[in-house]
Input
Amino acid sequence: MWLLGFFTIYWLTCIRVLVYYTNSTLIHEVINLFLGLLKKDFLLVKTYLWIWLAALLLLYMAGGLLASYYSVFYYMFPLLLTLYVGHTVIFPVASAILLKAEEKGQYWRHGTAGAVKLLGSKLMMAALFTITSLFLTNLFMVISWVIMEPVSNPFIDLSGSIPWLEGTIFNIAIVFGGLYFTLWGLFLWGLFHSLAQYPALKKFAWVIIFAVYFGTQAILTRLSEWQPVKNFLQSWSIQMELTEMSASHFGNVALDFTDKGGELLLWPILLSIAGLCILFWAASWLLDRKVEV
Amino acid sequence: MITLDNVTKQYGRKKSLDGLTYTFECGKVYGILGPNGSGKSTMMKAIAGLVYPTEGKVLIEGKPVSRNIARNLAFLSTEGMLYKSFRVEQMIQFFKSQYADFSKDKAEELLAFMELDRRQRVSELSKGQQGRLKLLLVLARKTDILLLDEPFVGLDPMVRDTIVKSLVSFIDFGKQTVIITTHEITEIEPILEEALLLEQGKITASCNVEQVREEQGLSVLEWLKTNVHRGALA
Output
């Protein structure tokens, strides 16, 4: 009974504290500030987004019409796969557009938002850009798939002819790949602008940028080839159980997204995520303390 | 109180600010005058925490300046302040979301005063209208320090007159420390309390505007001409 009373009071206090903080001016200010940044970044990128989505639609329609005309509609799949892979570029390009909008005068640094929020908002908008574009590409893929291999309802297709799980993993991998290039881009962008403080180094800014990127890659590659590191990276894994599925053949094009399953190494994934977090933090640190107007 | 303590800012071999030492007192309106490339904008950016001195310190109320000072300082910059694709209303909303001290009521009042159309895009605004919008955005904030970097640049006399009128109406005289850099001395003279002459990154002369007017019978422009000459000779 005493224990029940204690927990009731404890939870009621927790709820009161939570209500107090969510209603407090400070939280409201922070939320408003970040929403304001998101809205601003959306307005900066929205025209590009509509143009890109329209271009994607036109590209698909033109490809579809041409492929149908020559009765080789299955050629749409290599086109779609190219579009998918291209999304790893769309993420950093969207970020670059957003950064370019701020470059003149760098006035965005004059504000109450810290660099984490400034860059975080840009990152989220670039992600939204990429995911929206991926969503449309997925839609085109499903349409093409259904045209080639009709199913009654593709979205509740239980026969397994459409590889939803594999597609989702593929989408996640693309977004992650895009995020990797974007965060490197943000960090190198911050570094490039920080060099403006040192006129002697500014002349070699591009050399420094390339040296930092390729130098880091070379060190990481060497490290990962070192046996003790290799052993460590392979020390934690989970078994992936993907449904085995035969390849789909459309004309000369064979699509096989399936894997018989296998080991998924967790350390490389976790370390990559940690590395990306460090890059983001470093880019924010540079923007807060080193980049000048 | 804004203190510049032996501030030097060097870009390569060129010194944009050269051992600048000065204290701006609270609640006064300062005019920074000087030729192009004299370091006026660099000084303003250093006070706003957007440029880091190569040597020396910039202190506000005794604390070293960083970009966090934006919480208590409004800065009108010559470039990069407005987003071309935004409407006037969207610019106002964005500033409101970023600054807790931004007053929507004051912004509405200024919007009417500046005769700006809230639905118009920034790209459609004339230079004069853009200048007025920038001023609206900084004057709608309730800050202790107001930095106006070349608010009249490229504007015709009519617009300059409107801007001076808006400054007279909306500056909190005696409470706000206002620093204005400009070439348009005649228009700004009525609101200035102190004038500084900046040449080659150094303050070569300074005066109390009222004193110059009453004791020497000179306008700021006349005072400036005399001192630029002296500076050049020195």
